[in-house]
Amino acid sequence: ALAEHDIEAIFEDCLRSAVNRSIELSNQDND
User: Fold this and answer.
1) What is the rounded CA–CA span in Å between residue 24 and residue 9?
2) Is 3 helix (H, G, I), strand (E, B) or coil?
3) What whole-number distance in Å separates Cα of residue 29 and Cα of residue 11?
4) Radius of gyration over alpha carbons of the chain, in Å?
5) 3-class DSSP state for residue 31?
6) pTM, to two decimals
């Protein structure tokens, strides 16, 4: 099983990627 801090790190990476993607998409819409 993954250590708890590993799960948190993976979750943060996924969250950051999702935020970055939505920012990129909104920037494209503004173009």
Assistant:
1) 22
2) coil
3) 27
4) 13
5) coil
6) 0.63
